[in-house]
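A common beginner's mistake is to predict each chain separately and then try to dock the pieces by hand. The better habit, illustrated here, is to supply every component at once so that their relative placement is modeled jointly.
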Amino acid sequence: MGSVGFGWHLIRGWAILVYVFMFLPVAVVVLLSFNASQFGSFPMTGFSFRWFVELWNNDAILRAFRTSIVLGLMTAVISTTLGVLASLALVRYRVPGENVISTLLIAPILVPEVVLAVALLLFLNFLGINKSFALLLFGHVIFTLPFVILVVQARLVSIKRDVEEAAMSLGASPMQTFFQITLPLMLPAVLAGALFAFTISFDDITGTLFWKPGGVETVPTQIFAMLRNSISPEINALGTVMIVMTVGLPLLGVAIARQLAKKSGT
Amino acid sequence: MSSVTLNNIVKRFGDFTAVHKTSLEIPEGDFVTLLGPSGCGKTTNLRMIAGLLDPTEGEILIGGRRVNDVPIHKRNLGIVFQNYALFPHKTVAENVAFGLKYRDVPKSEIAGKVQAALDLVQLPNVGDRYPKALSGGQQQRIALARAIVIEPDVLLLDEPLSALDANLREDMRVELKRIQDQIGVTTVFVTHDQSEALAMSDSIVVMSAGRVEQVGTPEDVYNTPASEFVANFLGASNILPARCTGRDAQAAHLDVPLFGDVPIPGDKTGGVQQGPAKLVLRAEKLLVLGEGADTTGLITAPATVETVDYQGQTVRYFVRVGDEQLQAINMIDVHPFAEGAAVSVGFRPRDCAALPG
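With all components supplied together, the output reads:
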């Protein structure tokens, strides 16, 4: 008994250390973003929202924010639409080469992002197409699509075909059946997929660095650029905002999805 | 309400033929059961009538109208599925009202029709609950209410009782039959359960391996099976090799080893002619008799009890008669016979049927 207890204490201690290692830097950034000192490091000299105010007054950062949000929203909308359609086709219909298509659609997760980024860039250069916002969007759709498909497909498999058949037998056309039955039942997965797409796009730096046209910055590339000059406390504040958005949004999404699922009883 | 006609229907999936050339006439208002083991094509037939599958050949008529090219949502059918298939995100009332939205039913009448349907299935107070709050039997009643509230031309039931517990299944069986009688809708019922088929149907279509084996009233298919398959699928039967020695006005005479001459009444001879034949003897009609039992009108043979399968009210014996092992299901008279007991077995010729050999 004693040795078993000791083993468990060890495991528990180790687990705590792992969490500390993972989250301490995040906590430090959040903490320092409220530091009144003009150096972005310890010791803290007082509590202040000063850096958030400066952030708000920094045009470059605001522009980057706008770009990131527009890009994230468009990525989410396009990825989710394509992902839902692809999942429907793969799950509900017999498509020739189903497995190959499925693997190809999931592949961007497996390929290192740098490889994907360079490949897309070279390919478009080869075609004589210049870097543009559309290219950036295209790239983001490519590597958020697998996440949407994985989530939506899993949900769709669990929606029984006979529920849709019942709706059609009662007089609903295939289109009405989709909007009345299938879509509401897979809505939690659709929302989760959209959130995934948004946060992944919002967070991304590797692909974005390769694809963004000159003069366009997203929040991560803006931070990256600022870091090259100096470590301003503003960056801590920006980091805090990023953390709130990329952690808070999915949590909110999960909570909403749970509520929806609870209501529909599935 | 409408009749349903299948004309030379064939259904193939790739190289596999699920339904061989089948023709079937389901009269208006009848309760017809497609009965058979899994894979016999009964569900395929139902799905073709529903419009969920397209026949490879042949035509389907509902109320005399060819419906091959009419999509499911325009066929005006009520379908009840094995797993209820209620819409989990809609309340019971919304589920039942679903089909009415696609028909020209004035909004003001919908609530009344929904309530009438819920009353009919004896669940008047569950309208604002969600399906998951109901038991399996209740969910299946709601599924039935949803299917009949649209006043379908044909009601299709795809093994609607299989997902329920045994006790509930028998209640629902009575209930389903009552509702069908009350609204008089033409009903096609698919099941693999012979007792459901016998209890509920106006006529039974026994299917095997994509072919119709026999069509008839429950009594017909039970008492006068048209094939060995039917004899064995509906209850347990003993099939004995025999020779037909001749026919007269009343009966066909079968010469059965161990039992001798068995005169089969004219309506149960299965059209056997002189030559090899088979005797069909239901396990319930073969009596195991002790010493001194009254054997008036029985054809008997000495036998030995080999296995006793006690079931409370009845008992199933496996008895040895010569080199044949026969099955007998009898009511128990005080105590069942013991294994190894020397007994005799007997049956009345009119309880038998003949099949061509």
